[in-house]
Amino acid sequence: MPSAPPSASLAAFEPDRAPAHESAHELASAAFGRTMAVLVGTQHPGNIGAAARALKTMGFSRLVLVAPERFPHADASAMAAGADDLLASAVICETLAEAVANCRLVLGCTARSRRIALDELNPRQAARRAFAVANDAADVALVFGRERTGLDNDELQLCHAAVHIPANPAYSSLNLAAAVQVLAYELRVAFSMDSASDAPPAAILPSEGEARNEPPATHAELEGFFSQLADTLDAIDFHKGRTPETAMRKLRRIFLRADLDARDVRLLRGVLADAQRMARLAAARDG
Length: 287
Description:
Structural class: alpha/beta
CATH superfamily of the largest domain: SPOUT methyltransferase, trefoil knot domain
Low-confidence stretches: 1-7, 15-23, 194-210
Helix content: 40-55%
Order of helices and strands: HEHEHHEHEEHEHEHHHH
Distance between the termini: 49 Å
Mean pLDDT: 84
Oligomer: single chain
């Protein structure tokens, strides 16, 4: 599979924190640059080009491709219809975890599903939540799955919430690029708001009333914590024969709602490290 050009890296897309004196318009413009569309396992290259076109018409420029089946490809360029710059700068990653490692908010676009317990948002709610996070100088990822099968369970598990487009229940099949267009439009509307009356509700703003002394935890930091938490629960025999996935899904939701910063994660991982050490000592004593 072709690799991304050296200049097209995730790090290159990381904008600086906005100065306090920036206008509402400048802040909104910066928020556009902190938002990426992530296409996972795209099967038809024409859909990549059409998605790039949808993004560019709404003012977005960050496109990330996770294990595309065919890219670069002439069909992608043909369907981009002038959005070739997004294709040229697209970042290619092997896994979704790699693609969203630096993000603070990951929204998975999917049909309604009971497979994974996630908060469900409609496109407008998702856009307002994305605005609150991007306006706080943090990266946001909007994730779209494969044309035929969507996102799998492991990929959905990496998302903080699910976005469902309320289509006609009798015919809810939506083309990938059309779904990207719907979400990109709602994001544009939310990001362009500049009046106090149109500001997102305080309930969805991160860390309301609390100044952050530490940066928000990145997706990679949170996933490292969740991995250590799962290992610790196994070490102390927390599950006692029950299915571990159920407990971990609930615990993930609890900690994601807490909006942890980097220092919070370090503290929690320190607690887990001590619990693991005590579990090892107990095992050695009993053995």
